[in-house]
Amino acid sequence: MEKCAQKYKKLDNNDVKFLVDLLGQERVFTGKDINDDFSHDELGGVSKYPDAMVEVLSAEEVSKIMAYAYENNIPVVGRGSGTGLVGSSVPIEGGIMINMTQMNNILEIDEENLTLTLEPGVLLMDIAKYVEDHDLFYPPDPGEKSATIGGNISTNAGGMRAVKYGVTRDYVRGLEIVLPTGKILELGGKVVKNSSGYSIKDLICGSEGTLGIITKIILKLLPLPKKSISLLVPFPDLETAINTVPKIIKSKSIPTAIEFMQREVILAAEEFLGKKFPDNSSDAYLLLTFDGNSKEQIEADYEKVADICLEEGALDVYISDTDERKEAVWSARGAFLEAVKATTTEMDECDVVVPRNRVAEFVKYTNDLQKQFNIRIRSFGHAGDGNLHVYILRDDLSKEEWEKKLSDIFDCMYKKSEELDGLVSGEHGIGYAKKKYMFRQYGEDYIALMKNIKLAFDPKNILNPGKVCE
Amino acid sequence: MEKCAQKYKKLDNNDVKFLVDLLGQERVFTGKDINDDFSHDELGGVSKYPDAMVEVLSAEEVSKIMAYAYENNIPVVGRGSGTGLVGSSVPIEGGIMINMTQMNNILEIDEENLTLTLEPGVLLMDIAKYVEDHDLFYPPDPGEKSATIGGNISTNAGGMRAVKYGVTRDYVRGLEIVLPTGKILELGGKVVKNSSGYSIKDLICGSEGTLGIITKIILKLLPLPKKSISLLVPFPDLETAINTVPKIIKSKSIPTAIEFMQREVILAAEEFLGKKFPDNSSDAYLLLTFDGNSKEQIEADYEKVADICLEEGALDVYISDTDERKEAVWSARGAFLEAVKATTTEMDECDVVVPRNRVAEFVKYTNDLQKQFNIRIRSFGHAGDGNLHVYILRDDLSKEEWEKKLSDIFDCMYKKSEELDGLVSGEHGIGYAKKKYMFRQYGEDYIALMKNIKLAFDPKNILNPGKVCE
Known about the structure:
2 copies of one chain form a homodimer.
Chain A: H1 13-23, E1 28-30, E2 52-55, H2 59-72, E3 76-79, E4 96-99, E5 106-110, E6 115-118, H3 124-133, E7 136-137, H4 149-155, H5 162-165, E8 172-178, E9 184-188, H6 200-204, E10 213-220, E11 222-223, E12 227-235, H7 238-250, E13 257-262, H8 263-273, E14 284-292, H9 295-311, E15 318-320, H10 323-334, H11 336-342, E16 347-350, H12 359-373, E17 376-382, E18 387-393, H13 399-419, H14 435-457
Parallel strand pairs in A: 2-4, 3-4
Antiparallel strand pairs in A: 1-2, 5-6, 6-10, 7-11, 8-9, 8-10, 12-14, 12-15, 13-14, 13-17, 16-18, 17-18
Helix pairs in contact in A: 7-12, 8-11, 12-13
């Protein structure tokens, strides 16, 4: 772990007393009382316990803790469900971890302005259900439904429907944040347009908890599309499958989602869930969704796309138009990460994004790396938006072999991504684990500017230090 | 004009020689050779000539000029078509104006990634036509079609279709910018998703040329909707018209655009264009557009909305489904600003944005101000997204009376907007003219953060000084 030039104050009994006086004993955890979960996230290869973990219930509490930490030079990390994959929420300098999960109230649904106002600890699965009950729709749909919306906004994870609907940032209308100094700011609001000064809201989205702590959110909603269908399309091989995607995009029928998957991953998901996937006989699949308000329009769209798939070499086209059948394929898709994880001892992932017409080239390259490095690599992801999730599996490698191979493979993958005009992360962020690759791609001037921006918000560098750009 | 604490170097013969050596005599203008147009924009009540106006053809030229200016502490302003309304492109500290309008090449249309790569000087009207010829669609649609795309991104002006499609920022995938130091950065790219560090691209959008100069742009395109229709809906009065809008939104049929207009403005447009509007007998109108790929879907949507309008008190519903009839109403709408301007000696405008269900209250308030201040006020705008354009007309007021009344009226309007949870600018920006009102609404901490961000990009404060937050 890199050393921070600046020395932080180590949490002492007085600091803990401040926290207990503010929050009560039952919301302040120290030492052995801190659950192991809070020392790591889901991947990222980094772990460290905070000196204190506190549960907060209001922006005012966050503000008081931040102001105290600022005054006393104590590092602070905000944390949601801890489902990140790059170590963003790991308190690598110790200090105070602010657990935001108890701030989980939905505050208002406004059907005249089509907005949802809520606290950052609400889970994505709860948002989806809540708005659907009001016949409304929140399009961003990351695979990990137990993530909090606050954490999701912090990485700007866009999920499956970005092809048609865009990413999380596009649905964030307003934020309340607590700055590293403890000041509370309201950014944006219920308004649809905003050209009133620098868009700090858009900068906070994707800043991985390094510029401010999100304490309230106003989301943009859409009317719930009345119909949706999914197509599962088997192909003889992955290259043929993925090469079909740019042709679909070019055809001007925009599906809601286009995912790609390979048989090995489907088999792992079947095993993991104890449920059969509708088909597992082919090497590679595209899974597409179409949504809209009229059956005719959706049919016209998917028939055109089905024809393109068949022309390009698809073996068949399975249509899922009942909730049950859609559930069967999409629940398998949702379990891929966990399913792959369950087949090995340890894994790490590469979350590059490349232009849509370069996906096939990238996936082919990762397949070649399997042979070159004699290691298992599994990938799936968002063929429709160019965002890949490529998992490198440790299996029975020794720690040394694993670390060496992983580092070499990452090196190859991120170089390849750069060559294809891609970027280091499509949605999982940079955090701690991917800094090296972002630094290499962006170069000195770009990173220097990011560091300046960080200092503009956080002159003492106490909020989530050691992440993203430093 | 406020005094800048920091002293800039006054342009001298050596500096002009540097520019001439770099660009050639024919692209460097000084003194009397600078056209009056370059001393002001379309409104904003501020004017000042640059010491030199230069035309550039490449990012490298911009970079060399910026590096020289940075080295020598000379202020620089970038400028597109100069169609701004708040003085953003007026060189209030003199120095060098970089005219970007000759960098007007469309570089690439990529139908597999649905992107358009272009230079900042391309005009909005040329983008619209170019992509339509490829059966593609660039949704942002500000009223002023002779704006450059670079200028448009600098204010994040969203235009008429924000109701359904969002604003300009949502369609900017990548930018090349020149920093105040002269360094060139590439931000984003053709990729659909990006969580690779702070989103500097999103911060540049709407920063009104104060953080960097945009030299290349990658826009996101959509397939061109196959059908569109417009509805012109007369109402007995404006309040009834505008109060209908939240009910339309709540009905879950999202039109592409919902504009409101009053008879006085329509009459002015008829006079200005020398063409009849389809109807001018009613006090107030809503103008709606619906687009999509299927006639059936559009019909279902607009029939539902037409019914809502009639239930809420509309006098009739006129359907424009031919290109000719749509052209007649929308060309009138496009001419409103110029038409109103032509009826008076001078005017200024308020571009607030309020939540959609507060528009009626705001417009009613501005109507009341007419009587209170005995002045003509004309408004039109985007009822569907809450962004209003309210024009205060000088007519035959003396300079003193005009300045006093204008200041008092602005004061009232921006206070009212704040009361309604609105913001100072929906799309025209803050520039020079609206700083006072933004400062009042945001308060010290917020403005201090913006200034820090400005300094993170521009430590010598040489790029477009005196705008937005300082």
